[in-house]
Structures are given as structure tokens and as C-alpha cells.
Amino acid sequence: CECKEVFDSISEENEKISQGLNIMLYNARINEFNHDFNVEDVDILFILRKVINDNKKLLIRHKIFPKIAGETAIVQTDKKWIYFVINQIVINAIKYTVATEKDKKTINLKIEEDTGKIIVSIEDNGIGIPKEDLGRVFNAFFTGKNGRKTSESTGMGMYLSKRICSELGNELYVESEEGQGTTFYIVFYKGKNIFKL
Fold it and tell me: Residue 149: which domain range?
């Protein structure tokens, strides 16, 4: 029905405005990072589930199937900041998966434990990132060729995510192949004081 389409369209625009405001808020807050974080034991599986749940309307609307693999993993971090990072990556994954022509659209979130570290990977089968853009993904205001295609990119989400991970002592990196998809990795190092105090 036409009313539902209009409602969905308004709802989607509201979500975009909300995401934009959220990025602006976190951009303002990161300069006061040392006064605005609380280190605690955080179940990263809970954060992944919350991010998927908070984005379920978008996922359902665009027929994207998320899958979470891995077990409960406790990391020492700040809950709100790491939520922001994972949420940004998932929002990007949705955006660039919507842009693909593939019949089956997927986002896979995985937790793996290694010696001394926990690795969270977020993989999509979207349009991917061109090789020439890959090294600039975390630059402020960089949107890239495929970012301009979706016309929704601010170029700030990944820049902020990288800065936040750096402040929290996490590693954030990306692998991608144009036309195949993208995987972001967040590495949490165990058993040492990793925070820049």
C-alpha cells in the first residue's frame, strides 16, 4: 500500500537524521574522551546482538540477513564508545549491501578468541571498496567512489570509529574487494592496561 511506502520513507529519513546527529555528538565528545569513558567488563556478544536488534527495521526492510557466530567474550572497554564503533560499521554494511544487485544480502558478525586477543569481524557481501580508496577509509570526510554512489555518506563515521578504537587501545582495520564485499576487524588485546589515560 502507498501509505506504508510513504511511512517507511519518512521513517528511513528520520533514521538518517538521527545517525547524522549521533555522529556530530560523538565528534564533539571525543575531544573530551579522557573525561567521558568508563572501563568495565563488557560482553561483546551482547553488544553485537544489541546493534543488530537496534537496526532490525532497516535489515528487514532491505531483506538483509544478519548472522552472529561465536560465544560470550568479555573485554575491558567502554560500553557506549564500543557500541558506537560497531553500530557505525553495521550501518555502513547495511548501506553498501543495499547498493548491491545480489539476491542474497548478508552481514556476518563473528567473535574469535586468539592468544591474548579477541577479534570481532563484521563482514558484508555488498559493493565493496575500490583498491585505490582502501587506504583512505579512516580519513575524515573521505567518502570514496562507492560512498558517493549511495549519496548518504558523511565520511565521519569510520574516522571517528578509528579514533575511538585508538583511544580504547583496540586495533581497527579493513579488508575489501570491490564487487565482493567488505570485512572490518576490531582487535581487543587481553590482560594489559591498554587505555590512554
Answer: 2-189
